[in-house]
Amino acid sequence: MAEESKSLKEQFWDPVAGFGVTFRTMFRKVVTEQYPFEKMPTAPRFHGRHQLNRWPDGLEKCVGCELCAWACPADAIYVEGASNVDLPDGSGRFSPGERYGRVYQINYLRCILCGLCIEACPTRALTMTNEYELADSSRADLIYEKQDLLAPLLPGMEEPPHTMRLGDDEGVYYRGEFAAPAPSAPGTTGQEAAK
Amino acid sequence: MTLTSDSGATERTDLVTLTIDGVQVSVPKDTLVIRAAEQIGVQVPRFCDHPLLAPVGACRQCLVDIPDAGNGRGFPKPQASCTLPVAEGMVVNTQATSEVADKAQQGIMEFLLINHPLDCPVCDKGGECPLQNQAMSNGRGETRFEGYKRTFPKPINLSPQVLLDRERCIVCQRCTRFAEEIPGDPFIALVERGAMQQIGIAEDAPFLSYFAGNVIQICPVGALTSEDYRFRSRPFDLVSTPGVAEHDSCGSAIRVDHRRGKVMRRLAGNDPEVNEEWITDKDRFAFHYATESDRLTYPQVRDRVEDGGDGRLRPASWPEAFAVAARGLQAAGATGVLTGGRITAEDGFAYSKFARVALGTNDIDFRSRPLSAEETAFLAAEVVLRSSVTYADLEQASTVVLAGLEPEDEAGMVFLRLRKATRHGTTGVLAIAPGMTRGLAKLNARLLRTAPGAEAGALESLVEHARHGVDKNSIILVGERLATSPGALAAAVTAAARTGARLAWVPRRAGDRGAVETGCLPNLLPGGRPVADPVARVDVASAWGVDHLPDAPGRDADAIVAALLAGELGGLVIGGVDPDDTADPAATRAAIEAASFVVALELRETDVTRGADVVFPVAPVVDKAGTFVTWEGRPRSFEQVFASPSSLPDLRILAGIAEEMGRPLGFRTVAEARAQMEEIGPWDGDRATLEGLEPATPSQPGQAGGDFALSTWKLLVDNGSMQDGDKAYRATGRAPVARLSQAAYDAHGPTVTLTGDRGSVTIPAEPADLADDVVWVPANSFGNGVLADLASPGSRVTVTKGADQ
User: Fold this and answer.
1) What is the pLDDT at residue B692?
2) What string of H, E and C letters represents the secondary structure of chain A?
3) How many CA atoms lie within 13 A of B314 on its CB side?
4) Residue ranges of chain B whose pLDDT lies below 70
5) B236 at interface of A, judged by CB pairs closer than 8 A
């Protein structure tokens, strides 16, 4: 029989050694996270929900170029561009320059949070936050629209549309030649292009 | 050089052998080095070079090293391969094998990029940009340029539709050369010098060419964009489907770029036999009509007051609408069919079979415009099944006679081919027209000044006067407007027969020729079979598996309208007809009103659908497959772009009604209809002849009405309903003006009031090359159009000073 063939070490020492692991672990720090009751911070460069950043005056950085949608391996992003118009009351301007993203959707049922869109973005408009709680009860709720993705307004920012406050043309924005320091939005990791 | 034999085939003579990158290649004499390199699979980067434009060597990107020019000596410096013809024994080293050429190309690229903004993410060309691609393949990876780039305020309007971003321009001159060489509209030119050199327009002369959209497509950078497409989408997000333009009978190949079920833009396809690489702005920009808010999306049925309803149209299911339509048509008795000229050949076949099999009548006509019995006979005798003239033939002809046809407005690709032919100097154009127009002047046409209605005499004179140069190498192109000129079509046939010239009929609408071929005429069955021929009737009847076909000659569109008004016809099946296009808009409206039962097949809500008893929505061309037959007789098939299950082609709707009537058509899909059309095939028996046609007496109903003969045709860009939805495109149209002779203009001033037998209009006038008793107005550029608001076809009008003068 198999039992008869067991050595003395196997019969007595191995169980003790096994419980020894259990015993030792009892005095270690617990790794179990009490999510969702306690939320642990993620690694600083964790790939979480996207964010559409703003210039310090609140204008959107997104120019609607669709390079993020092109880079996306999961086809999760849909963008439509449109033209800014300079109206006297500033009601036609959402970003510096000629073009802005009129429609911006990310489908989090498809998104694999790989970050290729972030690499593709030419204006650093799209970055990722550390927010990982991306669950919902319906399909439609998981397609995030532009207003869900835009960074919150910080002091000194104003919700577009409005005129360019930091300079006369978009070059001032892109080259960072404006005076006001760009306060970095919470959740972003210092990727604001403004110097 | 290529020599052309009589058969039209080209045979190569005088081959020149040269060595490119160590590979020997033989090409015809005068080939450019850049094309010879393509033969061995070497792509030399280029911007200004375009195979359909004359070489210019503007961008210098195509530099190659030539150690031996064929005479044993080499060029000391790299040469532009797009302007250099090959020579025997030449040795060419491109960037593939020569460091000199590669370095030269990289240097040029660096120069081009000094002032080119790096705004590819917001540039419409980004992703399909030759500059972007060739900067990757033939440029340096790193920039050495420091400092600010030249900037311009952007963009500026060259026309309401075409926008120019000057800082992106690399001054390759493709657009200016196109405008000058191809349509002959040199409204754009280089202005300023040095680094400030840019494309510009004169202050008071915007780039209002009917072919302006082509410059956007051939621009190798994103300098030229359209108001319509600017920032709408990116090329990598678009799906391209080949298609055929639905606006004229030229059958231009187009590329439909779409995403998520919406057409974003249309580009010219490349078909050397038809449209080469050009299309008209109408083909390019007028596609928004299919997405207008008044598009019909579901069938509607009228609850008739007699049946206890409230007399209004209400939404209905497809089966119910089929049943109501079938019941109503059976109850209405004799029924006429008006198909309109926008149908595909498959839909035309369905209308034709529906009329003969389901309705048992020959009362079917595709013409929703002024017509004549002479034209009906002409189409059966001389047009159907004939395809003796092609685009290539226009280039080979010695003389092309235009009668009742203004090609720039009515057949854009015919215009471009004629212009190409006349520019080469081999072809002359002789226009039978009331006066010289801008379009005819660009063709360098000789004018045979003819008052409207007198075209018959002019065509007869072609035979007698040798100076017109009409011989067997000539081509006579007759437009659909000739139908209203008594005796003109018969005279054209006679002239063609006596001079040996070939004759072709150039209609305006895409579906006209297909409708002729499929028998949407009172005297023709599908495949060109004459109704009057018993053998032809039996042929079709046996193919369709019916006992017999109606043998009584049918009514044409005007007679159908008259019969509806007289109560001889009860029912009407009408599709795609705008009453304002017909010879008598008021009568057509009254006929629709008088008909006891009207089934309308329409894309969008119109006066016709509002008065109909059953309304079926039909699929626009993007939603269905089909075939348009060009004026040459060339079938141009296309597949559907969008699969939209609720959008059915006319033939499916007619099949549904016919099945409810118990006389099925035997097909339900485009593919099945095509199979049946092929099964029937063309008629190989005797054709109908023009003999026995009594010479039309020039009846002049409004002769006493005025002292000015009215000349009119539709401009390319006008108020047509298929051009709705794009304001910028409409704004590129020519302003509606009345044209008068200088003397009449002097007498009546800059604003004139025209009064005809149907009303009067007041519009600005301009002096033109016309006889003193002729006035020209655009047919559909103001109000409801000339036929509704001004005068009946062939009538005369009076001209007085405008009311506000």
Assistant:
1) 64
2) CCHHHCCHHHHHHHHHHHHHHHHHHCCCCCCCCCCCCCCCCCCCCCCCCEEECECCCCCECCCCCCHHHHHCCCCCEEEEEEECCCCCCCCCCCCCCCEEEEEEEEECCCCCCCCHHHHHCCCCCEEECCCCCCCCCCCHHHEECHHHHECCCCCCCCCCCCCCCCCCCHHHHHHCCCCCCCCCCCCCCCCCCCC
3) 9
4) 1-13, 692-705, 803-805
5) yes
User: Where does the pLDDT of residue A70 fall: very low under 50, low under 70, confident under 90, or very high at 90 and above?
Assistant: very high
Measured in degrees and rounded to the nearest 5, phi and psi for residue B133 equal -65, -45
**Residue B743 Rama label (left phi>0; alpha psi -120 to 50; beta):** alpha
Contacts of A81 in chain B (CB under 8 A): 122, 231-234
Predicted pLDDT at B107 = 95
Instruction: Evaluate if residue A184 carries a pLDDT over 60.
Output: no
Looking at residue B538, its pLDDT comes to 94
pTM: 0.92
Distance CA B263, CA B233 (A): 11
Residue A190 binned pLDDT confidence (cut-offs 50, 70, 90): very low
- Give A-chain residues touching B154 at CB under 8 angstroms: 98
- Tell me if B231 and A67 make a contact (CB, 8 A cut-off): no
Q: What is the ipTM of this complex?
A: 0.83
Residue ranges with strand state E in B438-545? 446-449, 475-479, 502-506, 524-525, 529-530
Residues of chain A found within 8 Å of residue B121, distances taken between Cβ atoms: 63, 65, 67, 122-123
Residues of chain A found within 8 Å of residue B222, distances taken between Cβ atoms: none
Is A71 within 8 Å of chain B by CB? no
A180 has a pLDDT exceeding 70: no
Closest by CA to B164, choosing from B188, B185, B186, is B188
| From B231, B237, B260, residue closest to A83, measured CB to CB | B231
Q: What is the pLDDT of residues A142-178, one digit of tens each?
A: 999 999 999 999 998 999 999 999 988 888 998 888 8
Tell me the two tokens of residue A143.
């397609």
Contact by Cβ (8 Å): B279, B248? no
Length of chain B: 805
Determine the 3-state secondary structure of B148 from DSSP: coil
**How large is the average pLDDT for residues A7-25?**
90
Question: Residue B516 CB: number of other CB atoms within 10 A?
Answer: 26
> Would an 8 Å CB–CB cutoff place A86 in contact with chain B?
no
Q: How far apart are CA B739 and CA B84, in angstroms?
A: 48
CA gyration radius, chain B: 29
- Classified as helix, coil or strand, B27 is strand
In the numeric block, which tokens belong to residue B306? 């007699």
